[in-house]
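5-formyltetrahydrofolate cyclo-ligase: structure, please.
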Amino acid sequence: MNNIVTSRTELRQLIRHRRQQLNPSQQHQAAQALAGRFSQWPELSDCQHIALYLSNDSELDTWPLIHALWQQQKNIYLPLLHPFTAGHLIFQHFLPNTPMRSNQFGIPEPDWSCPDLIPLSELDLIVTPLVAFDEQGNRLGMGGGFYDRTLAGFSARTAAGSPRLVGIAHDCQQVERIPVEAWDVPLPAICTPARFFLL
Ligand SMILES: Nc1nc2c(c(=O)[nH]1)N(C=O)[C@@H](CNc1ccc(C(=O)N[C@@H](CCC(=O)O)C(=O)O)cc1)CN2
Ligand SMILES: Nc1ncnc2c1ncn2[C@@H]1O[C@H](COP(=O)(O)OP(=O)(O)OP(=O)(O)O)[C@@H](O)[C@H]1O
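Here you go.
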């Protein structure tokens, strides 16, 4: 993009507005294309426990991907806003019949159930939402710092162990350069309907 916009707040507004312009047919095609591309990613064969999220605010619809991964017998987990540690996320097992509630942002999340929580270290892969990304793997989110706080201290590019990280987004969410802050956790992979960026 022609990047005169540098502030994170402005960039967030611009790209959120841009993805809100996608019509239902474009959204549908994007979600199908992403599910097809992502579910054939060879590295998935090593991943049994996968954190995803339910889409909000014109994010790429994750339902086709969730169904494709369930068909591959993967265990899917969703984020819950941590009930005690503000600004952090925890992850809970998600099945078609899991009871759900809406969180403070109106996003459905599983009803809290201790036995179904999974420690971060036992997840093989975390698929993160994002508002904007660049080709260096930098990620700008909704502005709550939830994923950055939850993943802090964990260097996605160098960590030998679990979990791996991958961002998913519409192609129109790519920008030339994200103004990076010290706490930002970069993504080693980003999947869009058109391509897979591996950093
Ligand atoms: N689908 C999805 N789920 C997610 C995230 C996400 O980015 N996408 N999150 C990623 O961290 C966490 C929630 N973070 C969020 C942060 C802000 C807003 C939001 O809509 N903010 C409104 C203001 C709402 C308010 O103040 O009550 C806005 O900016 O318009 C939504 C989710 C966990 N779950
Ligand atoms: N590791 C951290 N420790 C403490 N505060 C943090 C951390 N990471 C982010 N924050 C705080 O969270 C706020 C929002 O951060 P930022 O704008 O990077 O969120 P985001 O990446 O857009 O959101 P998200 O990660 O939820 O998708 C900032 O004020 C930042 O100071």
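Notes: The chain has four helices and twelve strands.
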